[in-house]
Amino acid sequence: MKRILLDTDPGVDDALAFLLAFASPEIKVEAVTTVDGNVDVEKGTRNARQLLEFLGRDDVPVARGASHPMLRPMGNAESFHGKMGLMDVVLLEPRMKVDKRAAAQLIIDEVNRLGKELTLVAIGPLTNLAAAILTDPTIPEKVGGLVIMGGAFSLTPYGSGNANAVAEFNIWHDPDAAKLVFDSGIPMVCAGLDTTMHPDYRMNKAMYAEMVVKKGKRSELIKGLCGVLVERYNGFSLHDPMAMAYVADPTMFKTEKYKVEVETTGTHTIGMTVVDRRRYHREENLKANHEVIVEVDAPRFHKMISDRVGKGG
Ligand code: BDR
Ligand code: CA
Questions:
Q1: How far is Cα 253 from Cα 238, in angstroms, rounded to an integer?
Q2: 192 three-class SS
Q3: What integer is the mean pLDDT of 77-84?
Q4: Over the stretch 286-295, which tens digit does the pLDDT of each residue have?
Q5: C-beta separation of 196 from 162 below 8 A
Q6: Which CATH superfamily is domain 2-310 in?
Q7: What residue ranges do the domains of the chain occupy?
C-alpha cells in the first residue's frame, strides 16, 4: 500500500488523477495540498474539496498552498482547463473545511508522521514542495520519494513543450521552485510530456467513448471534464493520471536515470528540463536521483484508466 500526499492544481487531468487514486487499492491518500497553477489557488482548493466530496472522501485533509510562484509571476492555464478549472463540470459548493495549516506545513507534518512510508505525488507546479524543503531541508532524506507530472526531456519524439517551445507547464510555472526541488536530493520519478503526449499513450476518442457509455454520476463528471477537450484535441493527454498510474503500478513503466537541470534564465527556454545524454555524462546521470519515464505498457495503462477512472475500480 502506497501512502501518498497529493499536491495538485485541479485542473481537468488532476481531477482524473483524483478518480484514479481513490479507485486504486494500492494507494491510500493521506492528505491533499493545493497550489497556484492551472487556476488560482482559491479555485483549486474549491475544486479539490468538491472532488473529494464527490468521491465521498471529505475525511481527507486539504490544505491551501502557494498563491503565486516563488520569484516571478507566471500565467495560468484557464484557456485549456476552463475559467474555474474543471471545464464544464458543475458540482455542489464544498462544505468540508480547509485545513488550518499552510500546504508546506502539512507536507512537513505528514513527512514527519510517515517518513519513508510516504510518497509525495506532485501534479502541479512545485512551489509548495520547495517551500517545505526550504523550511525543513531534511525532507528529501526523510521521505519515501516524489513522483511528479512535470518536464519535457526530449527522450522521445513527442511533447517537446506545452508552455513554451521547450518547457512543460508545471515546471515553467515555477522554474525556481522546480530547480530547488530537483537539486534537493529527493528521489524523484518524472512523468513528462515525452510519454504523456505520445500518441500511443493518450486517451483516444474510442477509449473516451467507452469510458462514458455507462450512465451515472461518474460518467457525467468525466463528460463535463473531458468531452469538449477530446473533440477539440482529437483525444486527451493523460498527464496527471500517468503520474498516479506510476504510483499504483510502476511495473507498467520503463524509466531511465538522468541528472535533470532546470533552466531558470533562458530567454526562450525558461522552465526547460535539460538532460545530458552525452556518453561522458553517464556517471553523473547514474549518480542522480531522477528517474524519467520513457516507455509505457500502453494496453495495461489504458486498461487501468478505463477500469478505474471510468468505472470506479
Ligand atoms: C500539466 O500542466 C497542467 O496544465 C496539467 O494539469 C498537468 O499537470 C501538463 O503539462
Ligand atoms: Ca496538474
A1: 14
A2: coil
A3: 97
A4: 999 999 999 9
A5: no
A6: Ribonucleoside hydrolase-like (3.90.245.10)
A7: 2-310
Residue 312 has pLDDT above 90, yes or no: no
Per-residue pLDDT at 311:
83
Q: Which atom of ligand 1 is nearest to the CA of 163?
A: 10
Distance, CA of 222 to CA of 97 (rounded, Å): 25
Cα-based distances in Å from 149 to 4, 23, 283: 15, 19, 25
Average pLDDT over residues 66-86: 97
For ligand 1, whether the C-beta of 77 sits within 6 Å is: yes
Average model confidence (pLDDT) for the chain? 97
Q: Which atom of ligand 1 is nearest to the CA of 149?
A: 8
Ligand 1 atom nearest residue 162's Cα? 10
Question: Using an 8 Å Cβ cutoff, are 143 and 134 in contact?
Answer: no
Q: Which of 6, 8, 9 to mutate to test the pocket of ligand 1 (most atoms within 8 A of CB)?
A: 9
Q: Is the pLDDT of residue 227 over 90?
A: yes
> Is the pTM of the predicted complex or chain greater than 0.85?
yes
Model confidence pLDDT, tens digit, residues 132-149 = 999 999 999 999 999 999
Distance in angstroms (rounded) separating the CA atoms of residues 35 and 66: 5
CA of 122 to the centre of ligand 1 (A): 11
Q: How far apart, in Å, are the Cα atoms of 199 and each of 50, 181, 209?
A: 31, 29, 17
Between the two ends of the chain, the Cα-to-Cα distance in Å is 16
| Known catalytic residue at 239 | yes
Asked if the bond preceding 11 is cis, omega within 30° of 0, the reply is yes
With a 6 Å cutoff on the Cβ, whether 99 touches ligand 1 is no
